[in-house]
Task: inverse folding
């Protein structure tokens, strides 16, 4: 009888993967606030889109709420998530004299400032993004109602009718598929040749790097597993990029217990990566789960290195 363990599974471990600088900063803000002010510290919305991270911070004393009205003790600090919040949320916190700490990713803040600059210059702003995503809600909430038009697809880019006069500019959600966004931008530029564009691409370095790493793996793998949360935009985009780049199968899993083991066969080549809000411990858990079931050979597939970091707010620095 043949031992199937004699045919090892080759795991290609994508790099870069997992936490980005904005996520590291946001988690650090919650941890430092708990250390400095004690529990509870309130967090509006999930600080990042990962259940494992949120549950870990809850265990340390963080209390997650959806709206500021859910906070009765306004003397306690409240932290705004890495995705950013509408200007009205900042205003409401100030009206209630709350101690607000902003954990918005600096790269999202850059998009906010771009949108404000274009609005002040009299331009109508087109935001390329996904409807209902917290980052999109936050960006649209930086300007008066009607000052931004959301475009979610190439079809909408072909149909958009911006206000007459005043010029046009576009910004993008930071966690989009690079290729998908490029297609929408190309249509906007064709239709509106004078549209103002970002000085530097709005799609963040981490999103771009993780998608590049997945593209490099796609045609080499029988399947790619993306560790991440179902409400994580950048994680879902990695699945789409894998499929669009030639991998026959790609799946989003939150942890090892969500892997469809019936689809895994000895001798396969499996690509493994993680979204920007997924901790490395979950990736390690998937590798351990493979090792419990099969002989494995793990190889690092690195396409670039990351050495970016963001400073904590001044009040939380050591």
Result:
């Amino acid at each position: 009888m043949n031992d199937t363990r004699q045919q090892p599974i080759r795991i290609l471990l994508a790099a870069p993967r997992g936490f980005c600088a904005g996520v590291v900063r946001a988690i650090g803000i919650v941890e430092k606030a708990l250390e400095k002010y004690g529990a509870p510290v309130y967090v509006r919305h999930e600080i990042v889109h990962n259940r494992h991270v949120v549950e870990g911070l809850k265990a340390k004393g963080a209390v997650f709420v959806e709206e500021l009205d859910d906070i009765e003790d306004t003397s306690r600090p409240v932290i705004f998530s890495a995705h950013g919040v509408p200007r009205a949320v900042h205003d409401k916190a100030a009206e209630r004299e709350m101690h607000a700490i902003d954990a918005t990713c600096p790269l999202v803040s850059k998009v906010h400032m771009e949108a404000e600059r274009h609005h002040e210059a009299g331009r109508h702003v087109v935001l390329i993004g996904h409807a209902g995503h917290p980052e999109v809600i936050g960006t649209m909430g930086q300007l008066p109602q009607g000052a931004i038009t959301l475009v979610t697809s190439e079809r909408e880019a072909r149909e958009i009718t911006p206000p007459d006069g005043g010029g046009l500019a576009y910004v993008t959600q930071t966690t989009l598929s690079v290729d998908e966004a490029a297609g929408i931008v190309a249509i906007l530029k064709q239709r509106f040749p004078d549209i103002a564009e970002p000085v530097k691409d709005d799609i963040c370095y981490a999103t771009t790097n993780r998608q590049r790493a997945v593209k490099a793996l796609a045609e080499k793998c029988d399947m790619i597993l993306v560790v991440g949360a179902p409400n994580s935009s950048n994680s879902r985009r990695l699945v789409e990029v894998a499929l669009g780049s030639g991998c026959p199968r790609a799946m989003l899993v939150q942890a090892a217990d969500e892997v469809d083991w019936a689809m895994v066969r000895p001798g396969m080549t499996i690509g493994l990566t993680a979204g920007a809000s997924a901790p490395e411990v979950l990736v390690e858990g998937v590798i351990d789960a493979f090792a419990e079931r099969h002989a494995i050979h793990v190889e690092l597939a690195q396409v670039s290195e990351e050495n970016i970091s963001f400073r904590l707010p001044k009040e939380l620095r050591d």
